[in-house]
Amino acid sequence: MGFARPAALTCGVFSVFGSLVAIGRSEVTNLGYHHLREQPAFPGPWEGYIQAPENKTHIVPKRVYKTEGNTEYWLTDGVISGISLGPSGVVTLKFEQNIGGRVCLDINSVSHNPVIQLAYSESSWFAGIIPDATTDRQDRDLPLVLALGNSTGQVCVAPEFVRGAFQYLTISLPFDINASGERYATKLWWDAVDAVGQHLLGPFSWLLSRYLDSHKAPGQAVASVDIANVWVNCTAFPSQTNGRAYSGYFSSSSIMLNRIWYAGAYTLQLSTIDPREGGALIDYNRLVDNNTSPTGSWYSNYTIANGTAVTTDGAKRDRMVYAGDMFIAIPGIAVSTWDMAAVRNALDVLYVHQYEDGSLPYAGPPMGWHHEFSDTYHMHALLGTYYYVLYTGDFDWLRARWPQYLRALRISIAKVDDELGLMRVSSSNDWLRPGLGGHSLEASAILHAVLTRSKSLVGWLDKPNEVGWEPAGDLSVLGLSTNETERWTWLQLTLARNIAARLYCPSARLFSDNLSPENHCDSPTRVLPQDGNSWVLISNLLSSSPLSLPVTPLDISTALRARWVKHGAPAPEFPNVISPFASGFELLAHIAAGQTSSAVELMLLEWQHLLDGYGFTNSTLAEGFRIDGHPQYPAYPSTARNSHAHGWSAGPTGVLTAAVVGIEFLEPAGRFVRVSPELTKWLGWVKGGMAMPDGSVIEVGHWRVVVFGGGVRGSEGRRRERKGVVVEVKGSKGVKGVFDAAKLLKEMSRRQYDGADESHFDFTLTGETNTTRTKRWVVWQDENDDNNDSMELLSNGERRKRARVQDISDLELLTTTETNEDDDDDEESWVRSRVLVLDDGVSELRYDDEFVLPEMEHREPGVVDWDVMERHFKTPPPAGWTVDELRQEQQPGREEWRDL
């Protein structure tokens, strides 16, 4: 059945993993979190956005997408109840979401030993008899062949033929191929058909149907098959028996942002796999297992880690652990599914394969055996270590890995040039972008960020039970030399000084990629990278630079935003590419610059296209796409190779929870949190929540309000309308943190906000009932510039400055008859039902219905530079291929796009 499993893979290849302590479902207690939830932590109407299937063991197609040739099918109550395929019959089935797993068929009847073929595709672009691609050696994968013989009943593909991601499944019955025929040869069948799967290769370019007809012998018996049912047993997110039991949630007035948050969460789920089902790069696997599988074949049975689950780069490919994904993926997993066991297993893979010199591998097995390395990914592994410990508080694991962490950190520190004060990278490997090398802006800025977080890790290890830490005393027990953390601070100053002095380009108000002559600020070939400039803001290095630069974080944020095109933020360091990975950094950059509205706007541009653009899945997030919106990822000549469920694209999931809902862990395991919400100009209301390692939860909601009824008495004693935002924090008893109103105060200011208002309010959720474990504040919009209007008249006739933030936890909360929030199916009515009665007993705070969503700015699509794109392909084009083939691909019209 299908291709034989290479002998070298039958027993696995990783005996070296015997020293690795892995986490399975039964061992999650080691994380301080007893198990993954069987039911959602926050049930509610937002569960309608969850893409994970109701029953992961039995996923059925949504509909018949198309048929060709000798095919019939039947529907019962709208559900496919039978398919009949005769000679040359083809049926393509469409699933509700991008899914992954083992395909199973219920066979009713067969004749003449039929051999069917299965072809998988994530994108509608390649829904047909030839699959999309995991291979990097040719345009498309081989179809999977199932020889049915005379058997009926249930037939499932072999376990090694799990397909990691697909939304379209094509079942075909080639005209003259049967199990007893002499000409049964899948490789020859592939060689006979071009990449589109419609014409015979050769000087006459025959139609496929003519080829089939010409090869039928007179009187030849033809095969057929009747299929009762088709379903998929999803093997992704193996730690979760209920894939919809999220430990966090997000809900807002923007349907698109809701879809984006849950698409990111599901992308991370689909990319979390059974470690025994990894390694989609068959040709790369050969370097380790010496397999002889035909080029273009595919399977997923390469053991990539220990344990029962591991997070990987992508569901279809590469199904490997890449260090670079950690910075984006870990926060997204923490706020959605909490599958942190899969995260720890992924980090362990990298540390187990740490090279003798202290370097961490570019990726886990099959890499890690031949010193595959990337300076940037090496540091991403260190950032992943920080975020794993921040969310879980797994200090035992950190202590065990700390010596390796220090060795790895010192590798990066040693690459800072003593003379030029910038990190000089030794590897050009990164996120497939070209041009990484020399004294790198991106690498230097990432190192600055790593050093900040490394000091936090030292503090947590030194005094794990204290909130806040300053370096003091003897830290040699942690393997640190005298004053080593102080030298880290000095190195950060050195990096900041030299990035500012050597790489800043004043005319662009951005930084250049490196110190090479072609990247000089005056050079026409200079590159002002998206990734490096984003990391300048993420690392906060401008504030630590001793140089006085005529540039602010706002200037950089504004310059990045000015480059956007219709479908998102281009990456100049990788021409023709829009990368959700690099754009995930840009989201964080805008937030660091105090421009959360720009971050949300970018989500509504780029990630909306990743969901609704033609050729995408409407459920998961792709690896990247072309600057004109086409679903080709320009790292590869074949559009079919793009991964449409890639964890590095899930940045908005973590960002929306942290920066918009406003839940951030300031101390490990959430023992102290910051609530720093911001609606931005794009939202009328938002709420969300997440669980913590000990099973406690925190939930934050905030919404625009206006005073109804008595109003607010101004300085002249007159009644006036007043607007603001109510922030509500609910959670388990004992949750501690600080409400930081600074972003809302700035957002609600109609003039330049001077930061003078009190903005930080410590809180502890106490009490035995949910009502008493709730804190509320109102942040008022500032008054007009008239100084008298900023004052309020007290009962004794005195005046005082009106507080812009007020604790209103004691105000009476009315729930109107519009809804019961506990069993409401309408998200919007939740906020409309919440009425707070002010102290005068007459005035009420109600949702502000006057909020109007602004229009999105018009932008033109990006323009492809075809010659440059061809120069930067990371995989070789097949023989005879020309870039003109891509030029000729046309996207269908809007109506066809809607149908697809």
UniProtKB/TrEMBL annotation:
Q: Which GO terms describe its biological process?
A: carbohydrate metabolic process
Keyword set includes Nucleotide-binding: no
- Domain Alpha-L-rhamnosidase six-hairpin glycosidase residues, every copy: 306-435
- Can you tell me which residues the record assigns to a coiled coil? none
Q: Where is the composition biased (Basic and acidic residues)?
A: 884-900
Q: What InterPro entries does its record include?
A: 6-hairpin_glycosidase_sf (IPR008928), 6hp_glycosidase-like_sf (IPR012341), Bac_rhamnosid6H (IPR035396)
Q: Give the record's keywords alphabetically.
A: Glycosidase, Hydrolase, Signal
A Pfam family of this chain: Bac_rhamnosid6H
Q: Does the keyword Glycoprotein apply?
A: no
Highest taxon listed in the record's lineage = Eukaryota
Q: Residue ranges of region Disordered?
A: 875-900
Recorded GO molecular functions are: hydrolase activity, acting on glycosyl bonds
| Residues annotated as signal peptide | 1-26
- Quote the PANTHER family the UniProt record gives: ALPHA-L-RHAMNOSIDASE SIX-HAIRPIN GLYCOSIDASE DOMAIN-CONTAINING PROTEIN, C, PUTATIVE (AFU_ORTHOLOGUE AFUA_3G02880)-RELATED
Protein name listed in UniProt: Six-hairpin glycosidase-like protein
Q: What is the lineage of its organism?
A: Eukaryota, Fungi, Dikarya, Ascomycota, Pezizomycotina
